[in-house]
Design goal:
30% helix, binds flavin-adenine dinucleotide
Length: 431
Amino acid sequence: MTKQLMRVTTHDQLPSSTEVVVIGGGIIGVTAALTLAERNIPVVLIEKGSIGAEQSSRNLGWIRKTSRHAQDLPLAQAADELWQNMAKRVGLDVGYRQQGIMFLANTESLLAWHESWLNATATLAPGSRLLSNREIEERIPGGREKWAGALYTPSDGRAEPDIACSAISIAAMNKGATIIQQCAARTLSFSAGKISGVVTERGEIHCRQVLLAGGAWSRRFLGNTGVSLPTLPVICSVLRTTPMDGPTEIAVGAPDFSFRRHRDGGFIITQRGKVDAPITLDHLKIGWQHRQQFRTGRQYLNVRFGSHFFNDLRLARRWNSQQQTPFESVRTLNPEPNRQLNQDALNNLGRAWPIFSGACIAEDWAGVIDVTPDSLPVIDYVDSLPGLTIACGFSGHGFGTGPAAGQLAADLICQDTPIVDPAPYRFTRFH
Ligand SMILES: Cc1cc2nc3c(=O)[nH]c(=O)nc-3n(C[C@H](O)[C@H](O)[C@H](O)COP(=O)(O)OP(=O)(O)OC[C@H]3O[C@@H](n4cnc5c(N)ncnc54)[C@H](O)[C@@H]3O)c2cc1C
């Protein structure tokens, strides 16, 4: 089954030229396209499947500063402001609610870890604070566990991934962007050493600049040009309950579950302590660049060798503009959810807050996340391919920062003052 999301009607005809082509209609691509269109820059966004159908509709919708890498906090703060104004900006609901995020600690050592984040980022995450078990109970009544404490940020929030991208893409079109779905970018074309167009499955579109915002596919697209983006896939499984009473509107993360209210009154739940890590050929090629992550995060990874390896192996890694590409064979990455992990999440949550014991599952799904070696994205020019900017590798937390990341990419393209210092996102850090 495919993840439910709001579908958008877009344009049919691929123009023959434009100023900027955006590849990928996830949160990054659509916010970049909106920003460019608002600046009166001619822009065409091409999406191989449907707008928002991959990670950007499958995520939990958390918009958080809590526990974020200090270097990523300015982008998260900028994104907060953009999310707050998004409904007004796009003229449609995106489900944004500023109702706080809380990370529960079941041990003193985990609480100390949260405290060290708080101390290191005090000025960057104003309002974040530690809570005692009693303060947790006051905010989330009906619990059975005794927590060591929690890290809480009232100014964090959430939006609804199943509507946000679609709403933003409609606004981008209203501002003048052209958006084409079911149209894969195959290759880039060059003239006099600079980008001169994108060859798509529907023909070539000439342009001066390209933004690659292809999520988990970006590594494969760039690989065909000889550039290595060191991202590896992990798969995160999620479930949504039918509408039900719940203990809080705060989004809550514990070591082995998380939950937050969905706009229809149900809850979106995941096993926060585990993701599936299917081995692919890329693990053999660039796994060494992720060795630090494997060492520190091993307990979170369900490492598996199986069908994913062979399915991935069957997809081409090199092609020319005349050949059908993997982007046409796989319109939407739609991995099977790990139902055991989802059930574990529901059981763990039901033990902590018994009100969830009677929850009914309305929908479950999974999404493939593109993880970089330091879990920060790359938002930068590709020096060896003049005219190409990339914004990818959001490592499981790019929905929250998405609007600011898309704007940063647009700033780089326009050579405008960047919304935040782009230094943490330089591509050269991996070379
Ligand atoms: C289960 C799950 C939970 C998550 N929870 C959160 C959370 O709570 N908060 C948070 O901040 N982040 C979360 N994330 C991460 C977040 O969803 C991503 O970081 C973010 O959506 C990335 O957006 P994107 O635009 O880079 O990628 P995507 O949304 O994956 O979009 C990329 C698009 O590019 C298209 N594309 C690729 N190649 C081509 C091509 N050659 N031609 C045309 N189109 C192409 C794809 O079809 C796709 O639609 C979660 C992710 C998952 C999977």
